[in-house]
Amino acid sequence: MSKRQANREEVFSRILEAAEIEFGLKGFGGASLQHIAERAGLPKPNIVYYFHSKANLYKQVLNNIADGWNDLFDKATAMDDPAIVLDRFIRIKLRQSFENGRSSRIFAQEVIQGAHYIGDYLKEDLRPWLRSRVGVIEQWIETGKMRKVDPVALIFMIWSTTQHYADFEAQILALTGKEQLDEADLVRVGDTLSEIILRGCGLTPPVSNHPL
Amino acid sequence: MSKRQANREEVFSRILEAAEIEFGLKGFGGASLQHIAERAGLPKPNIVYYFHSKANLYKQVLNNIADGWNDLFDKATAMDDPAIVLDRFIRIKLRQSFENGRSSRIFAQEVIQGAHYIGDYLKEDLRPWLRSRVGVIEQWIETGKMRKVDPVALIFMIWSTTQHYADFEAQILALTGKEQLDEADLVRVGDTLSEIILRGCGLTPPVSNHPL
DNA sequence: GTCTATAAGCTGATAGAC
DNA sequence: GTCTATCAGCTTATAGAC
Q1: Segments of chain A assigned to CATH 1.10.10.60
Q2: Residue A199 half-sphere exposure, CB side, CA atoms within 13 Å?
Q3: Contact at 8 Å (CB) between A168 and B112?
Q4: B92 exposure class (CB count in 10 Å sphere: 0-12, 13-18, 19+)
Q5: What's the mean pLDDT in A12-37?
Q6: Which residues of A touch B170 (CB under 8 A)?
Q7: Nearest protein residue to nucleotide C2, judged by CA and C1' positions
Q8: pLDDT of B1 over the 50 cut
């Protein structure tokens, strides 16, 4: 790779990171190329030169986020133990919320505002993923491995409870008086969520509650 | 009340409703007084005349939303049956999400963007409310009425799972292929959430599962 | 390829006529 | 009290120098 290409990629990722921060703080409409450029340490027109338009830069940011979301739950089959799979799924999702809240907040704002830029991803990628995971849960129920619950509502439940700690971080900090959430919070919340949801599904939580 | 005052109040509420819609769709930064004025059927300067500034109009909208959030859980005491109280709390919250999602989405965007305009409400109103509800749950646990769980994490769990159906409505519709959520969905999701959370707390869900 | 300069339009807010 | 006309500043995006 030439020096020029290396520099080009470095500029690309610097802009993307600056854009991620600004879009996360103010949403698509509230963010401006001006502030993104300042944060990236570049003249404003360079942003447009590299990404053609604000909307396109936003799409790139959204794509980057969606790419990083491959969960362990992906590979689970009807053969696996639902208690272990769901416990891990909850704790991994929760850790992602604690450690990379910005991505979750950008995605949340995009969905709240109607999912106009990400609608295709939801219908073409996430929807098949959901259907296949619902199939696994239905098999767990049919084979008596867990209590009969609505699989879609269960998955939405795990998503919402874990993402809450990223999306509503400001509210949680204001309510608890903390300056930031720490590893102890992660373990405590993970234990609570895992125990309630697993017991609610008629499962026994795994003995070793590693926070992962 | 004079005719003039009546008209004044009607204009006030018309602007507030238009603002609620625009802020809900695009967030504070993305919404413009121009579009709010057009939606309200008024010239743009009238918005500023009535509400002094965009930020103030936004605060008024936020205040209106917070005022409407007094739950039945407010009046619960350690004497009450946690199964009945929590079941009702979940179903009322869920119905609010189904029927008035716009309010939830405005509030969610405000919190995601840092809760700068609503920070005082969180610290001065919602925080004491949370502390008092945590106290009730702790007494339920101490008197053996329910299993020991982290009370704060439990309340966040109920908030997040119910608000999810308002805030992430676009995602849910895209994933399920529905055009809108209906009464049957409300009952089905309410049953699932109530059963999982109550069983997870060592409680037996109430026999009659009214959606309220 | 990367920058400066600038265009064309929209922003929140105001001044002043009626 | 309500409107028209307008302000200065910021928005995205482009044209053209280097």
Answers
A1: 1-52
A2: 18
A3: yes
A4: middle
A5: 95
A6: 111-112, 114-115, 119
A7: A46
A8: no
